[in-house]
Amino acid sequence: MLLAILDVVRRRRLTWGFLFLFCSLSIYWMETAGDWAQHLIYSPAFAQHHLLEWLPVKTPNDPLFMPFAYAVYWGVHALLVLWLSQWVASKTGWSMLKSLLILAIPINYVWDFVVEGAATAMGWWTYDPGIGPVLQWPNGGQITLLWTIGLMCVWPNLIAYWAGKPPIRSLNHLERFCGLRRFTAPKETVAPGGSAAVGTTGPGRPVGVATAPRVLSKQQEFDDHLNYVVTIARWRFELLRLGAWFIGFQVSFVLLLVVPLLLMRILTGISSPYIP
């Protein structure tokens, strides 16, 4: 996260990495309610935070490291699924969306088992009793096999697709949905590096002469890669981008993950001795 912030400072633009990590961290406040809904309990051996005690339902223990681990978990998953989907699309001729849909379930299961499988096997957290079939490790820790891993095949892949694969070149789905296109205009095509061809008409003279390439700042590199120009104050546009990402993450996470988890807990009525 610190590296992402430093990159934003250097470029004076909100980068994909910063936006995805920040917005992933910003939805953490809903995680503890979702944990309650799926009977997930963290080890009390970890240092705790008490920032979410105001929530009506929550898991008993909130490890101090979880907000930051949360951002990394979703960020790494997004990069994995986007890079692999692009690679498959380049090999098969499929669209990015088709590749992502086909890879969504296997990538989610592998990634979740790597992270949660290791965590439950080491006793960092467990699902007790869990909903649906579970896998129990020798230490007694449990990981669910269908619910909630199956549910998590939807939101993480959808939000990755909406965010788009870095590096940023055009407005992504979140930004277009929030109407940011009206604050942009198509960029005129220029030669790479800012050089321009100058025609000559004299016989025996070169057809064109290229100017010396510009030495670009990080901000100019970022802007040159975009296929649009911004027509309002740039600071305002960057805030609008942040708002579009923030709203997209919050609303979609509630509707596609938190609400289904809470409904399942309420409908099943399964009680847990640890999470009443």
From TrEMBL:
<feature type="transmembrane region" description="Helical">
    <location>
        <begin position="242"/>
        <end position="267"/>
    </location>
</feature>
<dbReference type="InterPro" id="IPR033459">
    <property type="entry name" value="AveC-like"/>
</dbReference>
<protein>
    <recommendedName>
        <fullName>Spirocyclase, AveC family</fullName>
    </recommendedName>
</protein>
<feature type="transmembrane region" description="Helical">
    <location>
        <begin position="64"/>
        <end position="88"/>
    </location>
</feature>
<dbReference type="Pfam" id="PF17198">
    <property type="entry name" value="AveC_like"/>
</dbReference>
<keyword id="KW-1133">Transmembrane helix</keyword>
<keyword id="KW-0472">Membrane</keyword>
<feature type="transmembrane region" description="Helical">
    <location>
        <begin position="145"/>
        <end position="164"/>
    </location>
</feature>
<feature type="transmembrane region" description="Helical">
    <location>
        <begin position="12"/>
        <end position="30"/>
    </location>
</feature>
<feature type="transmembrane region" description="Helical">
    <location>
        <begin position="100"/>
        <end position="125"/>
    </location>
</feature>
<keyword id="KW-0812">Transmembrane</keyword>
